[in-house]
């Protein structure tokens, strides 16, 4: 039986709550393949379930050290987090997390290179010749910990072959430790929905291991936008802006995530006030990347010029019902939707208001007034919390001089919208009364 089959057997035994037998299976998997850290983590869970908290923590710690050695930083954090849930004040776990953080920020600009603490001394060599699946009771526990607490003898991974730790690397060391201590770790089953499009949420997620699908409703059907793997962060834009998420995220396979709630961030911010700004900056960078890749306005620009264009905008958080454009008044500038939506409405000469459309991520408002010099032809308001990038009037005119392609795109967009406004307000065709009379043959 290979290590993959052993893991599957161990998982089945855990489902049946046969934790001692599962411990034997997972420990045997590690004895055969010391780099099988998933089995180490599951063995640690079994030890905890059997009431052996100290040995469980030792096992988690060995797992974290092995994962750090191979530069699996998020998984190393997960192992430390699960151990801290058992023993919150365990110093060796915090030492390992410090080394995880030091590895994550090694290439961060403007930070001094401080040597991380040395790795801990190895307590066990893991040299057990007995097949552990035939053991039970105290003998099993004693032999298992010799294997599970031993170091992973594998070679070092290339530290530049993996992406830096997302978000966490932007925090200083003490803030990082505080946040890890408060946030939650979750296992998500296949087909389980993590976040739902349009539903308010107060948390963000970091995908530690596994895979998730991102979908969005289009014409009543879910459309796949892409897939997320280890290291992905999602939900942070909704958390920062207050706008509901614009997509649904569903686990495709067994998946592990860190869950960071607003209450966790608020508690950390009381001790480390820089946290909200770090998160806001991170979310804005994510929105910037999304816009440059998907916004129709940026598609009109050479890719090399998109970053310089967006730097001219400033971030605006719009509360619900705020009007960014008022019909009959000059536009203050150009608005670009980052998250949320803007509703476009115009007064109907016949009375009432006509809704002309809804602007979503990547779409702009205010270009007609800016290009023509006339007053706004419609009112544009945020129906709910919305994040937008804003470019004031004077900066807009400088921008379109610098980027002629952008002027061309906005002029074409303006022409289409003016035509749509005209069609929306066109009076219904008047039918002659005689046309309503049916001829006897047709009756």
Automatic annotation (TrEMBL):
Protein name: Cyclic nucleotide-binding domain-containing protein
Keyword Ion transport: yes
Taxonomy of the source species: Bacteria, Pseudomonadati, Myxococcota, Myxococcia, Myxococcales
Organism listed in the record: Pyxidicoccus fallax
Keywords from the named record: Ion channel, Ion transport, Ligand-gated ion channel, TPR repeat, Transport
The keyword Transport is annotated on this UniProt entry: yes
Cyclic nucleotide-binding domain segment(s): 167-268, 297-400
Renumbered ranges of TPR repeats: 3-36
GO MF term set: intracellularly cyclic nucleotide-activated monoatomic cation channel activity; protein-containing complex binding
